[in-house]
Amino acid sequence: MKSMTLQQAGKTKSDPWRPAVPAWWVILTNELADLWVGGKALYLILAYSIMLAIQTFVLATNFELSLFTPPQMIFELLKSFIQVSLLIGLIIGADSISGERDRATLEGLLLTPATRRQIILGKFLASLSAWPVALCISVPSMFLLAQGDPVLGPALLWAALVSGLLASAFTAIGMIVSFWCNSNKTSFFVSLGIFLVVILMGQVIGTTQNGVFGQLLLLINPIPAGFTFLSRMLGLPPLPTQVGSLQFSVNPWSLLQSPGIFSVAVMGLLFYYLGPRLTVEDSRWSQLWSKLTRMVGLSVIACLILSLNVTSVLALPPAQSESSDLQISITRDSASVKTGDTTMFDTTVTNISSQTIHPVIVAMNIINLSKTGDVVDPEDWAPQRAQYIDSLEPNQSSTLSWEVNAVLDGDFMVYLVAIPHPNSAEASSQVVASRGLHLSVAKYASLNPSGIVPYVIGVPIVLVAAIFLLFRMRRRQIDAGDPE
To answer: Which CATH superfamily is domain 326-442 in?
Structure first.
């Protein structure tokens, strides 16, 4: 028995020492305590909850915005959630490493048994922790605006997927910037600059979608690609993508390639290249980053100018065709709906000539029949104002489907025109109009604002109370002699 005890003791001494928990988990818990118990993340979430409450209230009370369909309301809310969650992750990530340098605590962290990749992993997961909290806060607003529509479930699923990819990427970007900056102020400034550039490029894309350069940016920039994917999955009208003379509708799943590749590339750079090279301070990185930021700044300005001026030049001219006789019919003569409802109808375009007609443009227009009524903006009523028919053989017909969203009450006339493309810049063509669709729209309040007020007031108050109680508990612990 005594010899067996000695053998067991010998085996015990030879066993390698292993920590009770992984080092990255210890760093993660400490970072989470610093962010949430210390209040940094709570302040950002509180600011987001106030902004979310204001947006929800405006969507519910503004006359024109309240007439949006539930999928449209949820889509607008999701765009704000994604942009704010990216900004929060970027801000927290920008403080993760340069903040340690400013506080002179990075050297002590590097002396711990944790590897540099474990340090980066723990800080990354902690910086990403604000994203699911922001999503949870957004759920009640989405539930109220959905008004029982079944789109709520898919919206949560696809929003979690898209925002997860983008939030991971931008949190990693903030940490990369923080890795290369010795000053916390510089890290914040550069990170916010990158965020604004990406957002502005998304706005530029929205105004240059007809050019080749604009279409390439649409496929490369992860934020517009993610928004387009969400709009498709929520059943909103798709946006056609043009590259050269080819026009097609992008496969929704292909739109996730840009956010996915972007996220993998950025996190690969952070974990596999920069992670093992983490140091207390490296003047070489600082000098390189200073030069790089100047070059990137000049390049971004040049790209913005180029995208605004060159896109119209890169838009390829449409193919030429000869004008011919056309007929256009509509499946409905009248419709009675309420504000916020959607009307669907079809039109059939027929080539009654003996010649083939190449591109035919079919455009929709809406007018108010009342001389004293509000002016109609067809862009608000029809998600797809024009459709294109590549060619029509003699006696061939093409059927097109249309959707009209009733925005204002009153009497309106919807009509369509078929336009054969002219032969040359000096030529014209005969426009053919359809019968009018008489649309009678009655008033209807699509959302009750009284159900929104308790939420938009209650959520920020609950967060403020939580912050107050948390700080009071910390004060009591400090007064009792417990700094933790």
So the answer is: Immunoglobulins (2.60.40.10)
Q: Is 407 left (phi over 0), alpha (psi -120 to 50) or beta?
A: alpha
Cβ–Cβ < 8 Å for 474, 369: no
pTM: 0.65
Q: Which residues pair with 416 in a beta bridge?
A: 364
Q: What is the pLDDT of residues 175-193, one digit of tens each?
A: 999 888 878 888 888 888 8
What one-character DSSP code corresponds to residue 324?
A: -
**How many whole angstroms from its chain centre is CA 374?**
32
Q: 3-state class of 425 per DSSP?
A: coil
CA–CA distances in Å: residue 127 to residues 27, 89, 162, 181 = 12, 6, 18, 17
Write down the pLDDT at residue 311. 41
SS (H, E, C) 56-84: HHHHHHCCCHHHCCHHHHHHHHHHHHHHH
Tokens 């604002």 locate to 449
Q: Answer whether 323's CB lies under 8 Å from 361's CB.
A: no
What spatial distance separates the first Cα and last Cα of the chain, rounded to whole Å? 47
Per domain, the residue ranges of the chain are 23-314, 326-442
Model confidence band, residue 290 (pLDDT cutoffs 50, 70, 90): low
Element (H, E) at 191: helix 184-207
Alpha-carbon dihedral sign for residues 94, 96, 97, 98: positive
Question: Under a CB-based contact definition with an 8 Å cutoff, are residues 119 and 278 in contact?
Answer: yes
Distance CA 18, CA 340 (A): 63
Over residues 367-417, the pLDDT tens digits come to 888 877 777 877 778 878 888 888 888 888 889 988 888 878 788 889 888
331 and 346 Cβ atoms separated by less than 8 Å: yes
323 pLDDT band (50/70/90 cuts)? very low
Q: What is the pLDDT of residue 319?
A: 39
Per-residue exposure over 368-403, b if at least 16 CB sit within 10 Å of its own CB, e if not: eeeeeeeebeeeebbbeeebebeebeeeeebebebe
